[in-house]
Specification:
- The complex is a heterodimer of chains A (about 220) and B (about 280).
- Chain A is of the alpha/beta class and about 220 residues long.
- Helices cover about 30% and strands about 30% of the residues of chain A.
- Chain A folds into two domains: about 140 residues, Rossmann fold; about 60 residues, no CATH class.
- Chain A contains seven helices and nine strands; from the N terminus they run E-E-E-H-E-H-E-H-H-H-H-E-H-E-E-E.
- In chain A, a hairpin with a 2-residue loop joins strand 1 and strand 2.
- Chain B has one domain.
- Chain B has eleven helices and no strands.
- Classes of the chains: A alpha/beta (about 220), B mainly alpha (about 280).
- Chains A and B meet through helix 2 and helix 3 of A and helix 1 and helix 4 of B.
- Bound molecules: adenosine-5'-triphosphate and magnesium ion.
- The site of adenosine-5'-triphosphate (ATP) has 12 residues of chain A, from helix 1.
- Chain B: Keywords: Membrane, Transmembrane, Transmembrane helix.
- Chain B: It comes from Nitratifractor salsuginis.
- Chain B: This is ABC transporter permease.
Amino acid sequence: MQDPRVVVEVNRVRKRFMGATVLDDVSLQISLGDRVAMMGPNGAGKTTLVRCMLGFYHTDEGSIRVAGHDPVAERVEVLRHVGFIPQLPPPVKLTVGELLHFVERSSGTSAESIARKAGEMELDVAKHSQKPFFKLSGGMKQKLLIAIALARKSRLLIFDEPTASLDPRAREHFYELLQSIDYEHAAIYITHRAEELAGLVNREITMDLGKVVVDERI
Amino acid sequence: MKNLLLVAYLDIRESLRSKWFYVYAFVFGGLMGLFFISGITDSVVMGFTGLSRLLLVFMQVTIIILPIFILITTVKSISGDRESNILEYMLSFPISLKEYYWGKFMGRFVTVFFPVIVALLIGVAWGLVKGGELPWAMVGLYSALILSLCLVFLGIAFFISTLVKSHDVGLGLSFAVWILLLAFIDVALIGLMMQNRISDGVIITVAMLNPLEAFRIGAIALFDPELTVIGPVAYYLLDTLGRKMLMLYAVFYPIALGGVFALLGYTLFRKKDLL
Ligand SMILES: Nc1ncnc2c1ncn2[C@@H]1O[C@H](COP(=O)(O)OP(=O)(O)OP(=O)(O)O)[C@@H](O)[C@H]1O
Ligand SMILES: [Mg+2]
């Protein structure tokens, strides 16, 4: 069988949208301990690749395994192990309290532990719990999503440009939090600003036109 | 299972805060209010006739606005969730597609069904206060008909939302379905009937396949046992099926049809890309 440290295994994956090939024969392996900066120009296919790992897209060719499972057929098994932050905070209409309730019930992560994480980024969850999520400021939304993802203690963390709407101070807090993760995990940070992640990542994957063009340890 | 209820519960909470829900509840509540003011219940003989006339008028308005309300708000909310990436985020948690889809369905059902049924019951209560007699059979049948109308259009709305990715196309399609069922089918059938080229059996079958026709017939069958108002189609049906079968058909056919569409939608939801 395969190495139990391998968290993500992408094997010759192809994905087309309306005739256009967006992922072109992509293969890669990510193991526990890997912290990947994923880069590449707009439209390179980074978000698409990540969405395939999360089971949102059916691949046209090839296979993907996350935590040993197929993301489409066994989505619950896969998503149990994944913490995800989307590229843009979604305008969720649930209140903060309801969102935390949803997270707690569906993934078993306690609302208190999320509130604690949020507190470390100077976001007071209790104060805003009656507010619809989409009415929080951009940075507050981002902080809450980060708090949720980190509190879940997932084996695989996927961040699609997580710091886009954070002020410099919040960005510092965020990196500190990432550095303080004290259990074994793998992480993928999609970013256009690699220099910010220096010291945090140990591997760099660059995509262009749907292909992996660089994959090296740093 | 626990996540199904969770999704339904949160969907209801969300609806209760949304503007469309208030417009929706206000329209049906307001409708009843309008009936009271206009004095339908008081007209001529109070009692059975007054109250049942009120209920019948209520049903006639329901048949027009309920379907379009359900279609538009449901398609808007589901494809809106997808377009704004809410769906992406919510489905990044370990929750099965089955629980998500049917949970949403359940939540939606509760929010579209209750305002209408509550308005109906308020009308009944008012009629009783005014000294009428409670037309039990009618209230029961009408509640069942409203339930089945909600289910069939929810099913169609869920099917459209999973079939079509784009918000605008989904809304356009909903509107087309509504107009088609509400008017075009009847108009086309009348045209065909007048040309006399197609057998009555075919025409009647096509008419029967329209869930709105089923609703219309069911709503009037109690009130006007001879179905003279509706004309030849209903009369023919009454003649061949009998009254009991006709009512069973009016209630259960739309439910079955809604179930089929909801299941088709569910299959698409699982088989196609989610985003
Ligand atoms: N659901 C979809 N339907 C059709 N085309 C899509 C879909 N999602 C992505 N694409 C196309 O796939 C290509 C890759 O998009 P993707 O979002 O993966 O890029 P990206 O690398 O994340 O870019 P960015 O840095 O701008 O976020 C783009 O050309 C995009 O238009
Ligand atoms: Mg992207």
